[in-house]
């Protein structure tokens, strides 16, 4: 499936190339590497929205639809879905595009929950 219209007009929160150091023994990218990139994208979004430090407190389950290969361009999109008093739920999607092709395919998605914290590590109100 190609990237839907909704993604074509949006900038990714993060875009990186998958490198050999990020692979398992079979040459596929580690799921943990991709999860880390997705958490970083959600964290950037949470910090920008809350105007300060925010930490990951939960992530829902992920299912991988297809592997990411060395050299693939990985684009991660993040969108705030819900804002509470101190927390934010951020929907994140990861897409891969082979280095020499134009078609992007969704690899996985997840929802991350962040809590805004103050300088003492205590929850603080989100100021969006």
Automatic annotation (TrEMBL):
<keyword id="KW-0378">Hydrolase</keyword>
<dbReference type="InterPro" id="IPR033120">
    <property type="entry name" value="HOTDOG_ACOT"/>
</dbReference>
<feature type="domain" description="HotDog ACOT-type">
    <location>
        <begin position="8"/>
        <end position="120"/>
    </location>
</feature>
<dbReference type="GO" id="GO:0047617">
    <property type="term" value="F:fatty acyl-CoA hydrolase activity"/>
</dbReference>
<dbReference type="Pfam" id="PF03061">
    <property type="entry name" value="4HBT"/>
</dbReference>
<dbReference type="InterPro" id="IPR006683">
    <property type="entry name" value="Thioestr_dom"/>
</dbReference>
<dbReference type="InterPro" id="IPR040170">
    <property type="entry name" value="Cytosol_ACT"/>
</dbReference>
<comment type="similarity">
    <text>Belongs to the acyl coenzyme A hydrolase family.</text>
</comment>
<protein>
    <submittedName>
        <fullName>Acyl-CoA thioesterase</fullName>
        <ecNumber>3.1.2.20</ecNumber>
    </submittedName>
</protein>
<dbReference type="InterPro" id="IPR029069">
    <property type="entry name" value="HotDog_dom_sf"/>
</dbReference>
